[in-house]
Structures are given as structure tokens and as C-alpha cells.
Amino acid sequence: MSDSTDRPEQDSQPETGALPVPFPTDWTRCLILVAHPDDPEYGMSAAVARWTAEGRSVVYVLASSGEAGIEGMAQEIAGPIREEEQRRSAAHVGVDTVEFLGFPDSQIVNNGELRDAIADSIRKHRPDIVVSLYSGPEFGPGMPNQSDHMEFGDAVGAAYDDLVAAVGVDSREGRPQMWFESDPRPSHYVDVTGFVDPAIDALAEHKEYMSVLDPQTPVREQAQTQVERMVAPVEGLANGNPVVGFTRKRP
């Protein structure tokens, strides 16, 4: 694992058995930080579509170009293809700015260089909130997370904490007020009624990648299955509407 210390104790995990609460609405600018192309589409893009439709600004910053993700394709060819797929995907949910930090796919490590790049992105885009991909060890029993996701999530937390420790919390100065992760066991939720189709459209843009993952199933069908599973209604929440879950990590 990484060369950083363990996460601080202020991580805000939901109480056992407690239902998630609605996601905060007192913000304008969001920075989505993820490791690879398609990461925003596996778990949060329906929420992004709602946020941008409400007039909020959302920016994507990705650690890598996903160049190692298409089996049988040279990385120098796959990287630009995956970048373009991500840009087209983002457009479906109202995201115009998509940036790539250039770290090596499948070799992401929580080190000083990565933390500095993340902190620079936060200062550049001045978000009110930061949202990153789930970084826990497993999505569920027998469903381990990827090392890139875990290392990147640790780096996001360290960069966030360093910024806040240095100069406090003030989005006007490039210091966010909150940090969330997408999470299969969330503390907060977003009702995404009316925004599932844009999320399916977004995931379906990753045609080259998904056609290799499952050559037997049409990409659009794969995308619909995945997104509908990720936004499945939760008993007791949002009147049975589709939801996307996040866990508030800071403050």
C-alpha cells in the first residue's frame, strides 16, 4: 500500500443500520477526482447529470488515461482512445472540462508527486466539494477493489487534509468545504429520478473498452445493466426512486 499514514479518525462513516441522508445542496462547484476513464460512469454519473441540470459546475480530473485497460491494444493507442471516450461520456452529463494528470494506469501509487498533482487541481478549480471514487478494500464480499482506486483515494484524502491543515476551509481560495466518496454503503444519497438515461448514455460511450470486456453483449446493453444496478432503489429512501450513494469523508 501507500507510504502515507492511515486515514484520520474524522472520516464520517454511516452508523450501522442507519439510512443515508440527502446529499448537501449548499454548494456550486464540484471537482470529481478518479483514477481512470469510465470511473465516473461506474457509480456517480447519474448524480452528476442532476447536479449540472441544476446549474452546478462539475469538473473531471483523472489520474491516468486508462491506457492499460484495453486488452490486446498497445498503450500508446489505447490512451488517446480512452481519453476521447471519456470526453464524449462527460458531455452526456453536462461536464465540459475533463483533465488527465498523466500517471501510469495500473501503477498508481499514493506518493508526493500524486498528492501534489491532486492539490494543484483542487487549487486550480476551487471546488466547494470534492468527490472521489470508492477507495475501500472491497465493494462487497468477494468483490475486491483495484489497487489504483485505493491508492488514489488515499492520495485524495492526504491532499485534502494537507490543504485544510495549511490554510483552513474556504472554496474562494481553492480549499473545499467537503469531501465525499462514492460508496456501496453510503452516508448520503442523491435522488437521480430522470437522470438514469444520461448516465447510461455516458457509460455507453466507452465503446472500445466495454466491447473488449464483454464481446458477446452489446455495449449499450452492458451500460444499461450496470447503471440500473448501481442506481437501484433502496428501501426507505426517496420514495423508491433510483439513488446514487456517497459517504462524507470530511469534514
Question: Would you mind describing this structure in some detail?
Answer:
This protein is of the alpha/beta class. Helix 5 (196-204) packs across helix 7. An eight-stranded mixed sheet has the order 1-9-10-8-5-2-3-4, sandwiched between helices. The chain has a two-stranded antiparallel sheet with strand order 6-7. The longest helix is centred in the middle third of the chain and has 21 residues, at 147-167. Mean pLDDT is 91; it is low at 1-14. The chain has seven helices and ten strands. It is globular, with a radius of gyration of 17 Å.
Structural features:
single chain; 251 residues; alpha/beta; 8-stranded mixed sheet; two-stranded antiparallel sheet; 7 helices; 10 strands; globular; disordered N terminus
In short:
It is built from 7 helices and 10 strands.
SSE layout:
Elements: E1 21-22, E2 29-34, H1 45-53, E3 57-62, H2 75-92, E4 97-100, H3 112-125, E5 129-132, E6 138-140, E7 143-144, H4 147-167, E8 178-182, E9 188-191, H5 196-204, H6 207-213, H7 219-230, E10 243-250
Parallel strand pairs: 1-9, 2-3, 2-5, 3-4, 5-8
Antiparallel strand pairs: 6-7, 8-10, 9-10
Helix pairs in contact: 2-5, 3-4, 5-7
Strand order of the largest sheet: 1-9-10-8-5-2-3-4
Distance between the termini: 24 Å
Helix content: 25-40%
Strand percent estimate: 15-25%
Count of β-strands = 10
What class do helices, strands and sheet pairing give? Answer: alpha/beta
Can you summarize the main beta sheet? 8 strands, mixed
